[in-house]
Amino acid sequence: xxxxxxxxxxxxxxxxxxxxTVTFDPSTSSxxxxxxxxxxxxxxxxxxxxxxxxxxxxxxVFYFAGSFSSIGxxxxxxxxxxxxxxxxxxxxxSNGPNGAINALYCDTANSKVWAGGHFTSPGSSVAVWxxxxxxxxxxxxxxxxxxxxxxxxITSNYSQSSLFxxxxxxxxxxxxxxxxxxNNPNVPFSPGASPFSSSLVPIxxxxxxxxxxxxxxxxxxxxxxxxxCPAGPDGPGNTWFAADGNTALITVRDYSSxxxxxxxxxxxxxxxxxxxxxxxxxxxxxxxxTLSYVDPVTGQNQTCSTxxxxxxxxxxxxxxxxxxxxxxxSGVQITLSGWxxxxxxxxILQLLSTGAFAxxxxxxxxxxCYAPNPSNSxxxxxxxxxxxxxxxxxxxxxxxxxxxxxGTPASQAPSFTWMPYVSASGNYDVNLIVPGCTDFQDxxxxxxxxxxxxxxxxxxxxxxxxxxxxxxxxxxxxxxxxIIPSSSNFVTTVSLTLAATPTGSGQxxxxxxxxxxxxxxxxxxxxxxxxxxxxxxxxxTLSQGGQEGFxxxxxxxxxxxxxxxxxxxxxxxxxxxxxxxFDLFSGLGGVSSLTSSAAIAAVVQHPSGAxxxxxxxxxxxxPASGAANIVVYKNGALATLSNNGLNGPVTSLALYxxxxxxxxxxxxxxxxxxxxxxxxxxxxxxxxxxxxxxxxGVNGNVVRLALANEEIQIAGNFSKVLSAPGTxxxxxxxxxxxxxxxxxxxxxxxxxxxxxxTFVGNGTSSSNGQGQSQFLAGNLENMAQYxxxxxxxxxxxxxxxxxxxxGVQLDDTMESSSPLSSRKRRSHHRRGPVAWIxxxxxxxxxxxxxxxxxxxxxxxxxxxxxxxVLAGAFWTNSTSSKELAIIGGNxxxxxxxxxxxxxxAIYDSSSSTLTxxxxxxxxxxxxxxxVDDNQLFVGGEFTLGGTSANGLAVYDLMTxxxxxxxxxxxxxxxxxxxxxxxxxxxxxKPNLIIVAGSFSQAGSLPCPGICSFDMSMGQWNSLGxxxxxxxxxxxxxxxxxxxxxxxxxxxxxxxxPANVAQFSFSNTTWTAVGSGADIPGPVTALEVDNTNASxxxxxxxxxxxxxxxxxFWNGVSWNNIGSSLQSTTNVSQLVMVxxxxxxxxxxxxxxxxxxxxxxxxxxxxxxxxxxxLFDGTNFIPYxxxxxxxxxxxxxxxxxxSYASFSFSQHHFLAVGVVILISIAIAAGVVFLLALIGIxxxxxxxxxxKLGKVDPAEEDDDSISHRPSSLLEHINAAxxxxxxxxxSPFNNFNIEKEEAARxxxxxxxxxxxxxxxxxxxxxxxxxxxxxxxxxxxxxxxVSRPAHARYSFDGSGEGEMPLTAGLEVEVLDDxxxxxxxxxxxxxxxxxxxxxxxxx
Length: 1397
Fold this sequence. Notes:
The protein is mainly β. The chain is built from 10 helices and 90 strands. α5 crosses α6. The radius of gyration is 44 Å and the shape is elongated. The two termini are about 45 Å apart.
């Protein structure tokens, strides 16, 4: 069958399985597993009232927790495990947490599960499960208490070396001795500096190139070097002036790679001089830096860029201006653009480091300003210098290298120790700078080294193994935490030696060790809140009384401390990020935060080191004052996000690169800057500091976010994802939705749930969850294995079909400004003379189409609430050779161009993308599709803006535009809409498009219910005498599909009911299939078994609408085979499908296939389903579907890519035999007809031979005229046989014909020109002469006529015809060939006269 699609009105789809029927109780919490493709399976449910709130995976076991007493049939208190390999639930020992668990973290390296929540045992709100020992214990720090005493989340830092605990609790530090010498007393205090900035050691610039231009001519103020580290107060020899009246430029170039955090500027207060404005540009990137600083008047943080203010208040010794983060550069340019008096000037100029530093080259360790001594280094063994390029052009870094024999013990190998000068206590990241081996061309020599950091303060040394085989320059973090400042009693050291187990094999029996620079990056200044106010005479000291924290606590996973966090912790346990809790405590108002409803619910760390915290809070003081519900900790302090955060609580965070996804109960930022586009979920761009919506969010609350396969999974209490703020328009998504990060749109979630979801998480302990299965939990009312907006692709699988849902989500239909009922139809005007037609009585002309009783209407179409897919087709793009699916129905969606498309879409399954059709959008519902070459025929119940299309339209897939010129609109009876239900084509008549449904005419051509459109002529034609009624389905029978089988509510001529009727293309006649009385009502679905006209299946509802039926035509009679179907059944499609395995053969259906019924089905044997298979005896449920409301959905159709599918087994003659027999029969018929034609011609010429012939006269058949064809005489002689009925134009005198019909005697009645009288053949040389006569004696005017037969018109000057085509005869003076015009195309040419009537 090729590619196969399944369409319908459903949001979820299940493969039917009677053996494991699952029902859901929404009062329980159900746990589901979710594969990487998104398919869902139910694992079990908790006790009534239970909830599942958290989960994580440890190796091949999934742990989940919440508040419950059982899961499935297993008793378990609040936490349990699930083993996928066995499908078993297991309780976790005894003495577990005695209260609700909100958070779990799986530590794979140590095989432990950390639990956080609201309980008292085995620890206070924190407990640890040892998977090896199968036992519970309290956390090493005993637990967390204070405030609400509840832990809401447990996450790791970016390197997974520490755990972050958040919630509503308090922490206290300060039971041990305070950190000593927290700031260098040599650094003078200034209100223009912060504790953080004053802790940064200035970079020594003694060897740098420094220029100040233009400079003052006064020698006491012209030396720019004097301001780098002034030896005295502001004045001569310690201050620099610019030239009077000039903007000044100070350039500092070090020609080496420098990592800087900002600049320190001290103004001059000499009379008539001083700087008021400046900017800083980095070298070599020439970027103007954005600077942050403390306003010395207000104490508030400010930022500036091109014009930064410098205070002229003489009490402000200096001001520190910091970059947005550490910047690697080789120098800076400072532009002094504003001044007071006659010129600008400075007293202090310093470039601030990232914290501290030390070089392996002793000459580079020069003394910094205010430092009592420089950084230093020592070594053992032999070390030699090498120059390395840096990532800054034209700069070099000199390093030391030492070789050591492979196999040398680490204790005997060379070693190197750095002793950086540290100005102040604080939390630092220590980085080892290792130049890449590619530039050195020594990659094969490189190996791994052991780095040992002694931070001081009684802390244990930090040991790390570092590989030096990096090809490019690399900064490797070797320590993160508190550092004690340098003093006469202690100096922090960083030591390097050969690793105990070196990596690599070396080169020539040697390893090479590399010693470069050590960089210390200050992350927070270790000072108390009162010291930070600047009220003391120094830049701050650590409070002796300790510090209080709220809602956040960091614990190194490898820590062996046994401190008690429920009371007070020693300072030695304080980590670099415990300051987050301190700042939160202060920002929330101190002690009052412990009694408020504030809580930190979610934490995530960015690779830059910044920590984002979300929850329920508003900060009222500190640098992040005004921040609401979300805040970031960076550069040693809390900071606000754009627009001060969000206007509602945050419950979950997920980070993907620089995109932070936030879930909760909010609608916008605190300042309502997005007009409501952040409902429940939002995305924050870390770099751009901007908020963006996920379309318009969801219509409820989000409780959990998870990252999987570059998608954000969203769980919560909502029913839709919104397409626009302030409305409830959007896609159905009950409790679970998925956002595609790469596509920037809502995508298919895979499975479908209907309920209130409380958890989604990855079934792996991987840090990012990519490519892993997932688990989902919540209060379910219903679920389906596969989630899909009305469409899936099917393929063969090992255990049933593989189901591939639509990769994107479809939306509700757009609100239209032009409803279907208000659209106007364009009138069609008949062309040609109008005086000729009125002579014909229309009641006689169309008498064959009138009936005394109208057929019963078709059953009401099944409801198709948006989004629903009702039809599909496959198309191969000849340009790309890619097969695409085209779907139609009742839906809308936003394409990649953000354009809203409706009712039609092109789906690329390889990229899971939907593309809308260009041009006007369908306004209504699409119910039928057909692709013929590159033309897409669209049928349904709709209009098309700017066109007269009504229920039918044609779209050119290659030119991407609607073809509005060739197709005349369909029309319906008064008061009823046009509905096209079927568009098909037959291999017997490949140029004919058969359109069927509910309509009365096509253009001006009456053809109720079914009509054909000739693609080559662009002309509507009726099928024979036509039918009355409505058609629901069309199929084909015969070896070459020469028989059309139509089903619906049909009446043939003579008031013959035939809800299944057969039309023969060969003789253009309609016949009923069996007795119409044997079919109990209108037919809604039809199937012909492999084109066998003696094996037809029909389904529908009885005439009174009370019950469904399924009937089988065996070539002799109709038989009811669906008696077990229940009254709620509605069948939308029947289709024969092949089997991979066979079933027992019977007289109804062959063993290699089954009949697939689709719709909304109910039967006592299987309950309800959307698709079932019928083997001739039994119904076998196949698919069940679910609507977005959790109720039963329906399947509308199964469609496939093969244009004509044939089964491998046939129960009639083989194709080759049939072809041979057909050729023989055809040859005999043609010979017989040719013989009759020849005899007729001989008789026609007999009188010509007997009479006198004037040689000067031309015979009508002479070579000067186009010769009459043999076929025209054959047609005339066999007219009755071929046509089967009289033409309504045979008798030109209609009044005489009416009189004859009424019984009047008409002596002069003209006999039938094709009667048995031989004189008629002599009197009329062509059939047209006999029927129409000639217009030679009349004024030359055109008259209308119709084509009796089709004519290819391939000869020069000929015009092609299709049977039934209306033409205008322009010249009929030749007996054999007439000159005519096609009024629809404008083409003119000669046609056989015998072919017209």
